[in-house]
Specification:
single chain; alpha+beta; 15 strands
């Protein structure tokens, strides 16, 4: 099928899932709510559904620029508001004078409790507070079972979405040129490291693309790919802008500050 040639082979199962949802909603005239998706999955979903006039696709992640968002696929005539996405905002406080809690600590506590990543949205930590958007069906379980993060006692409670903290993520936009879209080459440009340092990080399993560990330096990046290097932070490819007169690839990217 021609559709598949536009995507990576490892993305085929997700594409099959999207096509199944598309057929289901079309045939049953009934909306389908999807768990949290990362930006690459959102892009694939939008690409497949975008030309279907019988359907509408909406995303919601609580915050205006939320990274992870739930999707709702519905017949074109239905009204879609935030309440349709069945999410809840949970909040807990911690003694920030005595312990430092980071995004990975919160996520680790949730995953250790048996919660699947797809049930969890964005996490915001600021001023001794942790806020996390979750699927409504796991909210009660989380409030009852997550009682500590990084040895700090916590008690999560549901709060109104209107009480959400401002996102603390600050992304710096830049434009650069690369000889190719290989992972190691793009890492060199974004993180201002040597090619060998990029290769070493990949071989040591320190690099993820779209939350999956990538061990091949030749992995080809695409728009909206999210890159994370342990100890060096996160970045994402925003737009591939074509080639320069010297036949290099010009791309815009963002790096989390």
């Amino acid at each position: 099928m021609d559709l598949y040639q536009h995507f990576r082979q490892e993305e085929y199962p997700f594409i099959d899932q999207v096509l199944s949802w598309q057929e289901e909603v079309t045939n049953r005239y009934q909306a389908r709510l999807i768990d949290f998706l990362h930006p690459r999955e959102q892009r694939i979903f939008q690409t497949i559904i975008g030309k279907d006039d019988e359907l509408q696709l909406a995303f919601y992640g609580g915050w205006e620029q939320a990274e992870r968002q739930r999707a709702l696929l519905a017949p074109f005539y239905e009204e879609i508001g935030p309440e349709r996405f069945e999410v809840e905002l949970l909040q807990a406080s911690f003694p920030q004078k005595f312990v430092t809690i980071e995004h990975r600590d919160v996520l680790g506590a949730f995953l250790s409790a048996g919660i699947k990543r797809k049930k969890i949205g964005d996490i915001v930590i600021h001023g001794g507070l942790v806020q996390i958007l979750v699927s409504s069906d796991i909210s009660a379980y989380l409030t009852a079972n997550i009682t500590s993060i990084k040895q700090a006692g916590v008690r999560f409670e549901q709060i109104e979405l209107t009480d959400r903290l401002p996102s603390q993520d600050t992304w710096k936009s830049s434009v650069g040129t690369c000889a190719s879209l290989r992972l190691d080459v793009v890492m060199k440009e974004i993180y201002k490291i040597s090619r060998q340092q990029a290769l070493d990080a990949i071989k040591k399993g320190l690099v993820k693309v779209n939350f999956q560990t990538i061990d091949q330096p030749s992995f080809i990046l695409e728009e909206e790919d999210l890159i994370s290097i342990r100890g060096k932070g996160r970045s994402r490819v925003k737009e591939i802008q074509g080639r320069t007169k010297k036949d290099k690839i010009r791309l815009s990217f963002e790096k989390l500050q």
